[in-house]
Design brief:
Length: 515
Amino acid sequence: MNKYLLAIDAGTGSGRAVLFDTNGNQIAVGQEEWTHIEEENVPNSMGFDCVKNWKLLCRCIHKVIESIDVDDILAVSATSMREGIVLYDKDGKEIWAVANVDARASDEVKELKEKYPQIEELFYKESGQTFALGALPRLLWLKKHHRDIYDRVAKISMISDWVLAKLSGVIASDPSNAGTAGIFSLKKRDWVKEMAQKVGIKSDIFPPVYESGTVIGYVKDEASKLSHKTKVVMGGGDVQLGSAGLGIVKEGGVAVLGGTFWQQIVNIKNPQVPKDMSIRVNPHVIKGLSQAEGITFFSGLVMRWFRDALCVREKELARQRGVDTYTLLEEMAKDIPVGSYGILPIFSDVMKYGKWYHASPSFLNLGIDPDKYNISSMFRSLQENAAIVSAENLDNISSFSGVKIEEIVFAGGGSKGFLWGQILADVTGKKVKVPKVKEATSLGCVMAAGAGAGIYESLESASEKLVVWEKSFIPNMQAHKKYLEIRQKWKKAYAKQLELVDEGITQSMWKAPGL
């Protein structure tokens, strides 16, 4: 008789339920898009609708269980966008929640820095996080603007924790996601109440912390239609569980996740942080490890813009051929020489976590020769640029952590083609491996569920058993040598473009809250 494991994934743009068998084979998926709520007269606010979104997640669950006996689901776990928080009253009822993209607390970030000089640096050493994406400024915003709600707050959790609380009635957190709230110790893998106390926030609202893969209870919720025999298992942050789903479970493991944003992650000893606050450091789902994380903004989104705004003809040709537009664009770009005739895209900067903003989006060095400067060369230049920023972030991580990068796992939508993986290998000079399962977050979540159910001894052993490789790319070292020169040119060009933003001549593509 088949037995199953269930992953629930609360992402930035959608919620989904994914059913796997105990061998890691995906059986069924239920997914629906959701939108976040902008509060009236509150710029950059993105509230998370717990009532509406729980109904949505239940519909996703119902879809994947319709053809099985729910008693055969051994365990369920959850993963989610990081940084998103849920607040509860004394009865465990949700009273306020925000998604990860909520940036309403920009003034509070500034106030914290002004009122408590050097406190961000102090907290960063402990947590690996800055204020820009953290929970403290949001809690201060709530205290200032909705004191009635703030006064009722009895517990805080992350969104993946909320999913598990809905199922089991148990409010708890795991290190990998709670760590992104910034009120957390990398070393102790637990909340640091003193951080909240220092800035005037309640310090008795933090739930117990359990490692990913720990059973926290059984399903009690009726709306999900799951069996009360099913174990509820602590999950984690999407990137960290996704890393487990890619086999990145040992010290020195490296991955580039090529999605809407690109993340460069390196497993490092716990705890280590750079002195200049340039890189984010999060607790991994593997106890004893942290993850240094570089972020490239909008790489996938820039590609989507390029495709939809400039490639109308190519989209139609791809439709006629029955292929993905990106597949056609890679075919067009494959014979463009290294460096794309000198085109330098200016979009995301290298990560500078302590003071991070971007130049105005642009292409530099475009010429008017249509045989050289066209859709094909511009497309390739964007692929090269994403790889260059990734390489810079990985080098910065290597510098402070001492990790010598030997090979890179490449996953996410960017890894599906034949060209981008080779460009990443050539730019970094490292072997690049692509797993069979590229959207690995749900697989990592199911590994946690399986560990809790006793199917796997641990997340590490589950990862070693379930991750299978599809292809690899070996770097062309002649191309690598050329890319080293191109990287230096790009860095100098980007610095000049930032000066134009500083002078008010151009507009930044993005600025961190509080700048």
